[in-house]
Amino acid sequence: MQKQLLKISGIFLVFIFTFFNSIYALSPQSELRYEGIDVSNWQGYIDYSQVKNSGIDIVYIKASQGSNIKDAYFELNYQNAKANNLKVGFYHFLTATTVQEAEQQAIFFASIISGKQVDCKLALDYEQFGGVSKEQINQIAIAFIQKLKELTEKEVIIYSDLYNSEDTFSSELASKGELWIAYYGDYRNLQNRNTSWNTFIGVQYSDRGKVPGIKGNVDRDLFTEAVLLDENSEIPSTENPNDGHNTETVFYTVQKGDTLGKIATQYGTTIQEIAQINGIENVNLIFPGQVLRIHTNSNIHGSESNSTGKTYYTIKRGDTLWRVARRYGTTVQNLVEWNNIQNPNLIYPGQRLILYGNFTSSNSNSNYSYYTVQRGDTLWGIARRYGTCPRRIARINGITNPNLIYVGQVLKI
Fold first, then answer.
1. Could you give the C-alpha distances from 64 to 73, 102, 124, in angstroms and in order?
2. What is the C-alpha radius of gyration for the chain, rounded to an integer number of angstroms?
3. Which residue in 47, 71, 101, 127 is the catalytic one?
4. Using CB atoms within 10 A of its CB, is residue 18 exposed (0-12), middle (13-18) or buried (19+)?
5. How many Å apart are CA 36 and CA 273, to the nearest integer?
6. How far is CA 287 from CA 249, 253, 278, 358, in A?
7. Which of 143, 237, 349, 375 could form a disulfide with 102 if both were Cys (CB 3.0 to 4.6 A apart)?
8. How far is CA 246 from the centre of its chain?
């Protein structure tokens, strides 16, 4: 009898352990079998034939941000990824602070991807909360997902880091879409984390991946079978609420022989608009090396053979690679790789450097932007937003614990 009681007690303990472990377990929904990347204008021009040959199966492409920004490389990324038989997904970077704004952004996202053939579930990238409460955050995300499903008839997944999946996003939101988690460690360490999801559909395991055909770093992912749609049908048509006036800010370094007319034509804007944005009084007077801010409502066009996505910088007296990298928000390592520089300490005035992607150039003494930490922010999310890395932000701000930042804190970026 005593042995029987012990046996029953043992079975009961195993049941209790299994039950509670299943509540808190966070593991892949099934086998992580698809190699993936997620890309935006930060990668510049991508040679998708090399990407495909390197073993990548899936590419998630940034389509839009906010209520009126269409990613400048969206069309080119979509066309070339499809031409090389990669499975394609689209994502939107949500910036809404009200339910109404969330629905408007869902309509805008749906209008950008209208008519496209999509293979993967649509993705919501929601990491910028604008100081709203957790309850509002979840209402906003749910409103966006419901509106997007209504317009596109496609399933939606939610991209999140571990912190927000545990602390910010609710179980109600989790019921609306599966989790694509960003975790830069061994995902098997997630089995005892208490999040609103029990499983994830994919994991972004690095933001510093190297893939042939892509200059510089790219996010790397692994996905399960469940990320794929049952059928890759065309996205239904949705009217663009901005009537075609989508804006994207890019930065262009003037080359020898350039004119404002030539640059305006290239970016689908006007001479007058470029002059006004950059404070140019004489539209016939621009000079090589000058960096222009351009608001474009068109797309960057090109093919595998003729589009480069390059920016150029001409070395000036007193320049160092470190100073150039800092000015353009990239790294010395990237500059060395992009330009086949043998000795990083040996550059000379007049030398022209190639930079891939869209870069902001700062000529101020500090070379810094400033950001005020909002409720729900993480260093990882802020770094991703600004195209840098958490370690750099921590270093220049003297942060010893990257997991400890506070609302109202002003960070140099």
1. 10, 13, 11
2. 23
3. 127
4. exposed
5. 38
6. 21, 9, 13, 20
7. 143
8. 18
Cα–Cα distance for residue pair 38/203, rounded to 1 Å: 11
Neighbours of 386 (CB within 10 A): 16
Give Cβ neighbours of residue 5 (< 8 Å, ≥ 6 apart): none
Active-site residue 150, yes or no? no
pLDDT tens per residue, range 120-178: 999 999 988 878 999 999 999 999 999 999 999 999 999 999 999 999 999 999 999 99
CB 253 within 8 A of CB 311: yes
| Strand 199-200 relative to strand 179-182, pairing | unpaired
- Amino acid code (one letter) for 299: N
Q: What are phi and psi of 104, to 5 degrees?
A: -65, -40
Cα–Cα distance measured from residue 124 to residue 141, given in angstroms and rounded to the nearest whole number:
8
What is the SS3 assignment for 90? strand
For 107, the token pair is: 């309509």
Query: Tokens 């008839």, residue?
Result: 153
Q: 83-99 burial, b if ≥16 CB within 10 A, otherwise e?
A: ebebbbbbbbbbbbbeb
Residue 231 annotated among the catalytic residues of the structure? no
Q: Which helix (DSSP H) or strand (DSSP E) does residue 354 occupy?
A: strand 352-356
| pLDDT (tens digit per residue) in 254-292 | 888 888 877 776 665 677 778 877 778 888 889 888 878
d(CA 106, CA 126): 12
Residues making up the chain, counted from first to last? 413
Q: Residue 392 is which amino acid?
A: R
Give the C-alpha separation, 262 to 259, whole Å. 5
Note whether 34 and 224 are within 8 A (CB): yes
On whether the CB atoms of residues 48 and 81 are closer than 8 A, the answer is: yes
